């Protein structure tokens, strides 16, 4: 072991940046701490404007060669990356669980296999990406996707590698080079992924990782004049800061931001299914931007729904996420735990009632909480808590349900539980949301557009929409006149 390596659950992780095909140290470091038990996991290279400049320069230098690489070769390399992820699923899973506290069983069976799938999907989509040529008064129009240039991708801590792969895969497939800035609370799997990409044969400078603390590296990256795309998943205030920086160079941005999504439960719904959907919102200790944290339940079934919900939620096991029997792990950081508890205690002081939970537990664990008697304009209903905290409100009519559902500044997702197909169509047509699930939750096909409305985001990604963002679309119009005969 060297000074730049740390060992996490038996897995060696390099704590330096990955820039231009090599490991790069920094003068300063920051400590990465596990939310599981508070143990220090390593001293991470702390990037600044200096490392940001070097990384963008490396991405800029590598861009012409990567952009000119044939589609088939780019696709082959993305499949090679997916192969590398699949070979190291166990290592990636245990490192990420230790780093961010999400369930090990989920990482093994769902999250890390999905990372590999994301690379395979965009590799395959690249090979079939085309528009049909069309005619305009005898002229031929041909639409093509030109790589845009170096991309800065900034990712959150709640699903670090999976959410990064949603951005990295299409950006690389499109022929762009990438500088990834992982969240400071969860930097480790980004470092492992850099090794995987290198071993897969990705050319130097095509993929880079700059680790940062606070806004030191991120601010320099998003304001750099050589960056041509910025994709960010995180908070609304940070997105506004990034947008201001991007505006100076007219850099297109894609933002997937906060949510305060509703789950509408109508009296004609399968109540057991609706309860299952509601309890599922505690997944990842409530640290899911898409989570339907506002339960809106028709008055006539609210009492029965609540009874069944409490019975189901009481069966959840909270504890060490490495334990196969655990359903809910810790929250990410003491600062986040303070934020969650602040929301709950202010709500209780204002008259809300905790049907379950409403308090901290030992360590960085917060009891799954359901609050009732909350006003529509209250903080806990209107603002994103990002913890295992749900609210329950009732409605009497379909119109009231839609009004309550849409009455926030967000519009990321919505879930509807109903047994009436016609009602589902009426309601979903009126909901303001980037994604609406009916009698299901968190089913995402990468062919579909994904993003938020209102303050939940800007733009859409997935399938062709990703290539539309990560490329400069070009239309070539050709006249039939003027061709010389070379016969």
Commentary on this structure:
This protein has 487 residues and is α/β, with parallel strands linked by helices. It is built from 15 helices and 22 strands. The strands form six sheets. A seven-stranded mixed sheet has the order 16-17-18-15-14-19-20, with helices on both faces. It has a six-stranded mixed sheet with strand order 11-10-9-12-13-21, with helices on both faces. Strands 7-8-22 form a three-stranded antiparallel sheet. Helix 3 crosses helix 4 (104-127). It is globular and about 80 Å long. The termini are far apart. The model has no long low-confidence stretch (mean pLDDT 95).
Task: Give the helices and strands, then pairings.
Elements: E1 5-8, E2 11-14, E3 17-19, E4 22-24, E5 29-33, E6 40-45, H1 49-67, H2 71-87, H3 89-100, H4 104-127, E7 134-136, E8 139-147, E9 151-154, H5 160-173, E10 178-181, H6 188-199, E11 207-209, H7 216-222, E12 229-233, H8 236-247, E13 253-256, E14 262-265, H9 271-279, E15 294-298, H10 299-313, H11 334-349, E16 353-356, E17 369-372, H12 379-382, E18 389-395, H13 398-406, E19 413-417, H14 421-430, E20 435-438, E21 457-458, H15 463-470, E22 471-478
Parallel strand pairs: 9-10, 9-12, 10-11, 12-13, 14-15, 14-19, 15-18, 17-18, 19-20
Antiparallel strand pairs: 1-2, 3-4, 5-6, 7-8, 8-22, 13-21, 16-17
